[in-house]
Amino acid sequence: MSKLIVAGRQKLSGATEVQGAKNSALPVLAATLLAKGENVIYNCPVLSDVEASSRVLRYLGCTVNRSSHTLAVKSAGACRGDIPDELMRKTRSSIVFLGALLASAGNARLSLPGGCEIGQRPIDMHLRGLRALGALIKEKHGYIECSAPYGLSGARIALSFPSVGATEDIMIAAATASGTTTITNAAREPEICDLADYLNKCGAEIYGAGEGVIVIEGVKELHACSHTIIPDRIAAATLMSCAAVTGSEITLKNVIPSHLAAVIPVFEEAGCTVKSHGCELAFSAPQRLKSMKTVRTMPYPGFPTDAQAPLLAAACVAKGTSVFVENIFENRYRHVSELIRMGANLKTEGKVCVAEGVPCLYGAKVEATDLRGAAALVAAGLCAESATVISGVRFLERGYESLEQTLCGLGADVKKI
Ligand code: EPZ
């Protein structure tokens, strides 16, 4: 198992390009199942989760070839309706294949994705939405068996929560359903807009993505197209956290500042300055951060839950008390115990984590248990008094394209062993 050795007392400088968005690439890849012909997906990050999705596409009869950050997906529609366990287990976000599979093969059989490190991750809203479109769904012995014997037809679907995955699953399935589908209380994340842009380029008719109500006029079929994945706003927020904890000045290239509208003010409250010029962000941090007062994670356009862990690492060494409220996932503070091992003064109580800033953290042997928690440990390691050894690097590789190389490119001393 590889580990990361993060030297302490680091300073970052220079510029780096932000990767393509993992949470946009994954649903777009699932949707290529419906887009017959050769899809060319640019700015597709090199991640184990993307690799896992490529394996699912190959299993379903597509050819997938990568050259650098471009993925060519040749799709003729799904040649089978099942995804085997070992492929489903690789990444729980393969649940977004459900809608694509149902629309393409007319049936789908896959194992329940199950919970993960950050929560139980139920899929009731996915299933309720697909049933509204006419899918017959049985859940038994850990499997979902779906069929659409009469095809899928448009429906009015109201989500009880603006679930990103459920919105994506329904959008993909409704794109070629007969009739009109309306999703109210839809997720508004930029990744939803990116998926809608891709589907519309394939001939879909989707209106209102990014708003609370999305209307999908079903079309007969979709054709392949080329598409560039948007920049990863969470990777950008993670690099900002790394610069914030080390009192550094860096430039991020290939960002969309408006996607960070809820994140930037938190860093500014902590004493950082953030200047955007087009798709570049100039970020500089003070020698010591001020506290972030209160950070509440919310559905977009609120503060993103995926940025909570890296930002909490920064709050550990800020001057004063910061309060975090994690409103999206029920178990997203697993990095707290490891940060405490490094000398952080943190207390969690349910959704709330109170960070009393300490002057410095100390290097330690720590264990990552989820993707964003791993990033928090890397950020904390950069400012610790001595080296930190982080195990569980496989979690990091799910969502960050060689974070250690990116940080070394900014002058840090981070080694993978
Ligand atoms: C997506 O997960 C992202 N993953 C997550 O990023 C992100 O944290 C999350 O959206 C919120 O922004 C991908 O896009 C691949 P949800 P998703 O459905 O779709 C509950 C990362 O670190 N819920 O919006 O699973 C659910 O349990 C990952 O990159 C139901 O109850 O998120 C959660 O509490 C982590 N029933 C809340 O809603 C459902 O049917 C939000 O989940 C679906 C969700």
What report would you give on this structure?
The protein has 417 residues and is α/β, with parallel strands linked by helices. It folds into two domains: 203 residues, Alpha-beta prism (UDP-n-acetylglucosamine1-carboxyvinyl-transferase, Chain); 207 residues, Enolpyruvate transferase domain (UDP-n-acetylglucosamine1-carboxyvinyl-transferase, Chain), CATH 3.65.10.10. It contains 14 helices and 25 strands. The strands form six sheets. Strands 3, 4, 5, 14 and 15 form a five-stranded mixed beta sheet that branches. A four-stranded mixed beta sheet has the order 23-24-1-25. Helix 12 links the parallel strand 23 and strand 24. Helix 5 runs parallel beside helix 6, helix 8 packs parallel to helix 12 and helix 10 runs parallel beside helix 12. The chain is elongated and about 65 Å long. 54% of the residues are buried. The structure holds ligand EPZ.
